[in-house]
Amino acid sequence: MPSDRREGSFNREEQTLSLNRNEKAAVIEGVAAQAARSQTLALAEYRGLTVENLNKLRVDARAKGVYLHVLKNTLAQRAVAGTAFEVAQGAMVGPLIYSFSEDAVAAAKVIADFAKGNDKLVIKGGAYAGKALDANGVKALAAIPSREVLIAQVAGLLKSPIQRMAVVLGAVAAKREAPAEAVAEAAAA
Predict the structure, then answer these.
(1) pTM to 2 decimals?
(2) CATH label of the domain that carries residue 27
(3) Full residue range of the structural domain in which residue 161 is found
(4) How confident is the model over 27-47, as pLDDT tens digits?
(5) Domain tally for the chain?
(6) Are residues 86 and 174 in the same domain?
């Protein structure tokens, strides 16, 4: 009889660790809602990462507006079915961390930057604009400057000709003032 109690408590414990149907439906609904708002999905295998490293990754992702979640692949596949991220289902194998972002490059950048400093995080693939990305595609997407940087670069390009023109006009005005000042000084002397 004592062995039955142990088995019974083990089964109860095992049941509480797995998700019931309603909880799975809620997870699928939440991920599907996030996928609907997102432009990019990046997948990475996290096998061997410490809890401390995963927490650092989550903090970094949260700061950059990236939805980062460890999901069962079957739930993730159901959540992205019928979305632009459905093309990435082939890469959804193994223990993966899923990162979604509304910004086109944020999810890829968070994963790629963290993978540079930690060889345990292995980029597996992703999706952008309805196209599946391999690991190199995710890295290439991560190399694109963020929206804010691109806006700053465009503003700098627009400002540059105006700034040059102001310098030239200032120099012309200084040349015109210099002879007038010399004539005034000569007359005073």
Answers:
(1) 0.69
(2) 3.30.70.1730
(3) 146-189
(4) 899 999 999 999 999 999 999
(5) 2
(6) no
